[in-house]
Design brief:
This protein has 440 residues and is α+β, with helices and mostly antiparallel strands. 53% of the residues lie in helices and 13% in strands. It folds into 3 domains: 149 residues, Yope Regulator, Chain: A; 107 residues; 145 residues, no CATH class. It contains 16 helices and 11 strands. Helix 12 packs parallel to helix 16. The longest helix has 25 residues. It is globular and about 70 Å long. The chain starts with a helix and ends in a 7-residue tail after the last helix.
Length: 440
Amino acid sequence: MFGKLFGKGRKKEPPAPGPAIFFGRYSDNNKPVAKTNRWTDAENLFREKKYPESMDAFFDYLRDDAVQNVVYERNGAEGRFHFYQGSKIVRGSFNNGFLNAEIILARMPQPSVPVMRRLLEMNFNLFYSRFALDNERLCMRFDSDIETASPGKLYYGLKELSTKGDKQDDLLVQDFAILETADSEHMAEIPVKEKEIKYEYLHKWISQALDMIKGLDADKFSGGIAYMLLSLIYRVDYLIAPEGSLLNELEKIGGIYFKKDERAVTEKNRDMAESFRKLLAIPKEEVSRCLIRSKYTFSIVAPQPYKTIADSIHGANQNLVWYRDNNYPAIACQIAEYGISYCQYSYSMPRVITELYHLFMMVTYSDYFRALGYKKLFYDPASGKFDEEAIEDEIKSVQDRWKEKYPLMDVKTQNLRYDNLVNFNHTFTNEMEFLNLEPK
């Protein structure tokens, strides 16, 4: 106790690093100060009509050094680049005052009227890019004069091209048998054991949620059931990180609840539960194909003011109180999880918040992380004991990493409660609600 109070005692060994496993959706709202400065450089150089130098700064800004997602080279006024967005590679170049970029979506060996009709309809919803057919190659393209290719136009043009292309290639090949997968050789397989564990926990979490719902009054507990099902979507999305058709199915389930219609929550809950039952019936081989490792450059969702995140956490924590006080701890835990998980799923989050969220999930689902091979665990569900010192050391480590960008951020660890998982989840997310993320 005195060692904890006064900073004395045996020096702890640093925790062993965990396995190299990717979690959740990529967020490009994660730039350190040096990278954000490169965006300013790109804008200033563009205004000065130093277009090649502006390109240098822009692609340096775009590159996530931890992921190595962007390859860029320039020779005088000419340059080439390619970058990764999930299942797709964006390839491009600039010379003679012109920039172009392209994604290969699929191969179409024979012309298809239904495919072309689909693409024509989707073209109306694009602002910067367009679909194109080059012999058998079905593509998306973006181009611009260099003199009008400001950093803002480049960013949103390349983002539309890459995010739409990454989503549509899977859907097109799935919906039209005539199309063939193309240009996806860069996708990395994950170890078989990791796939087995993810498949096991996908079924475990869905079955647990459905079994819990069976024992609840559908009308009286409609709100709690909705929280559980939505939290399940976001948990699977973050911890299992599926791609392709499985990710698309998860998005459809969330759409059932958030669709603006007049249906009662009980009806939406029923349909979400039924959709999860259908997920359980998907063959293991098909699920396995959706468990791959990808690099990303752009987030598929947009950043939000931190108040939006704080409001989501606050609303969920207000609603968990009744379930906690009336002896429904499992539902209360998942409501606390929902408040921050909804944001992690729906918004492009600052990486510092994702790192705190990841710690939250490591505590809440320590059995999953143990199965994946993590040696350092923060909570033992069998005994209900927390490793308080390790949790607080990890929080301090996160804050230290981001102190330069967020000097006013302060998680008050003295407010955390470790008497049970409900109170820990409540107090931890409550601290996240009141963080000051004013940048430097």
